[in-house]
Records
---
Amino acid sequence: MQNTDVIPELSFSLIESGDTYAIEVLSKALKNHGFFSIIEHGLSDNLVNNCYKSSKEFFDLDYDIKNKYTSVGTKGARGYTPKGIETAVGEKIADQKEFWHHGPVIDNSFDKKIPKNLIIDEIPNFNENFDTLYSELHKIGSRVLSVIALSLGLEDDYFEPWIKKGNSLLRSIHYPPVNSNLNPHRARAHEDINLITLLIGAEEGGLEVLNKDGSWIKVSPSSKAIVCNIGDMMQLVTDQKLKSTTHRVIQEKQTESKPRYSIPFFLHPAPSINLKSIFRNNDEGILANDFLDQRLKEIKLY
């Protein structure tokens, strides 16, 4: 029997090949807490390293330079958001992090609500690196959604029209060192808004998932693993058959606080997609753009 107190780490190549045990473990994880890690996913180590190098170079810039790429006016969707802005739903204290938002390379075929990316002048190859990482994580995310669709009894390409011209978001995060005696919460307890999240960089430690019994499960993936989790949009359209679970990032008091970097990819549908139950025909649903706007207001990014 699978231990529900552990986030499973699975070979994605085995899952896609139809390995019975791997699929069974994945299905249980989706229903128990909506978190799992994948290895053998095909993401280039060199690409990841280049993006982390670009990310660190950007966050090392003076604040005045970073802030000229402010996300104000885009609902936080593009550019730089400084520390002390994003606040988890129901919380009064903001998260201790700064971040950069990057989206798809768009053309006229995309919804007009999806903004263009900002171009960073100070960091060579920054945009090229993140354009490539966005593209690669979108491909992996599409493959993960195919497996999820099959687990729900759907065709493997069920979600493809939702995300083909989607409003997905690549977030590069810097968590500065913190005084854990005053506030160990680098990112307070929250759920993700989107369909699924793919996270690289979780091996630095601090990510925890809320278990059904109220305890916190430490996520300890291997260095090349991608941590995947279900978001609120997926929970909504599956009538909570798949769980969008509360998680947080903390600084353990017995561990020296160092800068922490991570890069999550939030896979979103296009703004015009109606998020309605895939099981109930009488569900009226809600537009993805309206759902997103509502949540962005709640976390102080609107």
---
Amino acid sequence: MARPTFIGLGNYAALGTDPIFRQVLENSGEFLIGTVPVTVGLALALALLLNRAHVLTTPFRTAFFYPTLLPLVGAAAIWLFVYTPGYGLMDVYLRRIVGGGVNWLGSPTLALPAVMILTVWKNAGYYMLFYLAGLQTIPAELYEAARIEGAAWTQQFRAVTWPLLGPTTLFVLLIASINAFQAVDQIFLMTGGGPDNRTNLLLFYIYQVGFQFFDLGRAATLTVFLLAVLMAIAAASFGFLERRIHYEV
């Protein structure tokens, strides 16, 4: 076994000329933009719909939260069946509608969006709980005063609900962004980073470099880069968004 050789900042310099690393960064950016706003928006919409007392509120809350309870292995297995060409649920309905199917996970264009759908489905119910908790802390007197003033539902949301959900939104955005960069299980189980590295995300690339190619120095360099990205996201969230958030009623 060859002895490790110290090369200083050579691994960091090599990242700039690595086409796979650039592809991974592009994929990770698309994954972040494609999952975080959709997941957070869907979680907020579900929380607003299920915040009112109704006989079906509890069953619906349970149904939307249920994907969160599934192990990611089980969730990936379910969606692998959904995406299976020929007899998967997506193909069955597509054949009835347009007469043909799609190889979702085998297409360089559709593979990453297909993984995004799984991620949104898996996480929306989890973030919904935080929004439900945030909605419970808003005093009912504020909505009553708004109704007395003749405010419509949209005006109540813009003037009361959304500002007072600021701390919850900051927390959810931060957690969702960090989770987006930590996505690895669904990639490992569904696509293996393919086709042609179109679903290869940063943490999965670190796994490949470290445990498949056994380039531990490069894997350590990528890990430091990932930590720097996560720290930058946290700093941007608290530095930019926190100044626009109301913590008191």
---
Amino acid sequence: MQFTAQQIATLLQGKLEGDPDARVSSVAKIEEAEEGSLCFISNSKYEEYLYFSNASVILVNESLEITKPVKPTLIKVQDAYSSFAHLLEKYNEIISGSSKSGIEHPSYVSPTASLGKDVYVGAFAYIGEHVVIGDGVKIYPGCYIGNNVTLGANSKIYSGVKIYDECKLGCRVVIHSGSIIGGDGFGFAPLSDGTYKKIPQIGNVIIEDDVEIGANTTIDRATMGSTIIGKGVKLDNLIQVAHNVEIGENTVIAAQTGISGTTKIGRNCMIGGQVGMVGHIHIADGTKINAQSGLSKSVVSINTTLNGSPAFEYKSSLKSQAIFRNLPELQQRLQKLEETVQELTALLSTQNLEYKK
């Protein structure tokens, strides 16, 4: 599939400099681009590649000052990075079948389900009783949508996703393959004979507008009430969100993070990969948590940056790490000091005895 520089400039409302008929059929990094490639520069440290790149079209910031002749066709935009992302989004819509609609067979759609306009249901999907599906929703092959589920307009549910009964999803929600929404929370009561009795999980999961959930992420239903994923939240692959957790608006969480039950995470937080959180704690708005950190208590101050396990204030943790790296040397110095003290003590004892004589 090919596009001309003029078509791309029109889509991005950018200023074109060079050949409007230059054609691209692939995207590439600026340092690896070949003829027929489209790439972008948003960081000035890559500017040197601009002057000898083999790319056919390059997106650049309007503010970039060109100091040498340039072979590729340039498209100047206000923000090359966001424009490139927008372009990839449009391209992905073309190649991913986002324009699909209708119901493929074999699949099952309950007679009591309500489907909006331009809905797509892929083969081998199951749509349960009293499900409400908004306009433009895409449900790809092999999905399970349980009873009384609501899917807001223009959401995308990729192949193999399972959404259990009673869960509510807002508009423009994207859930990637293999994710499970609304599985039972981990609730078991210990009995006197050493066994465990399962506590029924009768709540649901609420996912608000513009949330994206990565592949193989699991979000458990609440024991009672709702597990809530706030508007604009972005979850990476392989994340575990336990029952009754609440994640505030526009928080982003990287892969392999585990959040224990009833923990409340504030708005605009940034949480790195493999972070672990105990249950029943509160994380203040704007908190940043470095990868592989472990939280065992609440974070009460907004815009705090944390690191380590147990996690504590970032700068202090760096100082502690520096000390930890020097522990072998410090141990040797301490041993030498102990030996010196022993020698001095022995010498003083000898001198004291001679004085008494």
---
Amino acid sequence: MATRETVAIGEARRMQLALPWQASLWQQIVTQHDSGRLPHGVLLVGDAGLGKRCFAEALSQFLLCQYPDSGAACGKCKACELCMSGTHPDLYTLSPQEKSVVIKIDDLRAVLQSIQQTAQISGARVIMIEPAESMNLSSANALLKHLEEPGADTYFLLVSHRPGALPATVRSRCQRYTLGTPAQEEVIPWLAPLCGGKTAAVDLLRLTRGRPLAALAIAEQGGAETEQVLLEGFDKLLTGDITPSQLVGLLKGRSLESVVIRMLQYVEAHVSGSLPQIDGDPSKHAPALQFYSRLEQLHRRVSGGQNPNATLTLEDLSISLKEALGR
């Protein structure tokens, strides 16, 4: 069953546009492309919940469109139709497969071998890697040569929540574009109709530190009031006002995936701002970073179809949250 989030993002894809708060960055990249200055390696970074993948998908379609018009894909040509159906032969998407938490070297090599052939439709080829930090060291090294010597009209779009986890050699061969937290006035007109009005939208954006897609996901889980109870539960766990077992009681009724997402966001907020932007020595926050990485891996497994015992997993997460962030 389609959720409001998937419907909203799907509508953006049908319109061949970035999401409203991404307009400035979109125009910057389109201008670079039209003047022949768009780099072959694009690194899109920012917090989870800002719509980086949606932006990358819109950009992929624009780069592959046979008749782009006014800074957007036409939406009507054969290339656009294939992009929207997910069957464009010159668009490659790399993400961890099934139960894996990394992008394996064999999967990357298969794509790199394919792009040595002539493009089948418009002449351009796009390789989207998301999340880019899922590449293991061997995969990242295999990518380097192609970033250094890309083929004509070949674009690598790397989407990353944690660019600091990418090898410096990969980062240095891409141009970095940051999707920052948007102003409320850019988001409210889009979010309010999807979550019950302006007041609800403002509350949700406050809880998610301004991340629109994270706010919309919360609306699907019961709204700001339910979310506030959850966040207060995390706080009480760290201060010792409740036990891990009592926190599990508060979490019952929520999907395991939604809890993992909220914990990821909570850890980000807890560690002096946002973990995805920490590019230096993370030793100061090692326990939190290790827990964050573990949550990421769990999220990939759950979103990929695995179904671990929810009660046992929540108990383990609650204990680990206390150990990672508690004083």
